[in-house]
Amino acid sequence: MNHKQALLKKIQIQDFAVQEASLYLISHPKDKSAMEYYQHSRALLKEAIDEYEQNYGPLTSRSNLDREWKYVYGPWPWEGEN
Amino acid sequence: MWQYEKRLQFPVNIQKADPGFAKVMITQLGGPDGELSASLRYMSQRYVMPYPQLKAMLTEIATEELAHVEIVSAMVYQLTKNLTMDEIKESGFDVYFVDHTAGIYPQAAAGIPHRAEFYQSKGDPIADLCEDLAAEQKARVVYENLLRLASDEEVKKPLRFLRQREIIHFQRFGEALSILQQHLDSDNYYAFNPSFDEAKRKETLTCFDNKRY
Questions:
Q1: Is the CB of A71 less than 8 angstroms away from the CB of B47?
Q2: Which end of chain B offers a freer environment for a tag, N or C, measured as fewer CB atoms within 10 Å?
Q3: Local confidence band at A82 (pLDDT 50, 70, 90 cut-offs)
């Protein structure tokens, strides 16, 4: 696994953690440990996304940080080359 | 991968319920030229688009259409709030009410439920982009007809915005078709299908297409 793939995996893991915590918190809004887990995962997710985007370009059309429009560059996620 | 943003792309603040208008408005949710058809059409077609600009264009427009699904749904929701049984009967909304109460269900104005027959995914980018251009024009006409039927300014404002987006998308799809044609044989655009004939597609890649992270 190269650096790019490792970063994507990290994003996948942390985003899934945030997703799970979000769903759980909808029905358990007063669960303090769930809220801590959410905040912890959210911070790690942001860190992973920032590092990915600085090295490998925007993940969304709203985060093209470069002066050059790199959002269109391949490979696209369904192409199985990531 | 997608995530939800808790806001509308364009505000909807309809104070006056109008179940009669809701009955025609719902066609832009579930009808043949509605936003759901538009989104699923582009979302389905994007996979075999042969060049990165085309993948990006279809992905972005498909995503914006989902935001339009939400605007149209919000309009139908506000148009059918706090209805009396008399209003429901007099407006002809009873035929919708009996199956869905005031729930939001994707259907055409005449009651036909949303269906995948409304769109195609042909696996050929010329055919798909031409369908997309037509789809934007057809949706523009529906919004113009809705604007003819509407009287409330709060209903007209989002309708005008949605109509304008059809025109912009038509423009962008036109540019996408032109980008596609620049990759093809100008003596015969149909010489090969760049979504299927992989060796030929590779021959037509430009240095931009090859830009990768």
A1: no
A2: N
A3: low
Residue A26 has pLDDT above 90, yes or no: yes
User: Residue ranges per domain, chain B?
Assistant: 19-204
Q: Which of A7, A73, A79 to mutate to test the interface with B (most CBs of B within 10 A)?
A: A73
Q: Is the pLDDT of residue A56 over 90?
A: yes
A78 touches chain B (CB under 8 A): yes
Residues of B in contact with A45 (CB under 8 A): none
Q: Residues for chain B: how many in total?
A: 213
Contact A77 B209 (CB under 8 A): no
Express each pLDDT in B125-173 by its tens digit. 999 999 999 999 999 999 999 999 999 999 999 999 999 999 999 999 9
CA distance B67 to B147: 20
**Quick one: pLDDT at residue B142?**
98
| Closest C-alpha among B6, B18, B5 to residue B149 | B18
* DSSP 8-state code for residue A66: S
Report residues of chain B scoring pLDDT below 70: none
Query: How many whole angstroms separate alpha carbon B133 and alpha carbon B147?
Result: 21
Q: What is the pLDDT of residue B127?
A: 98
**DSSP secondary structure of A39-55:** HHHHHHHHHHHHHHHHH
CB nearest to B53's CB, from A56, A72, A77: A72
What is the C-alpha separation between A68 and B5, in angstroms, rounded? Answer: 26
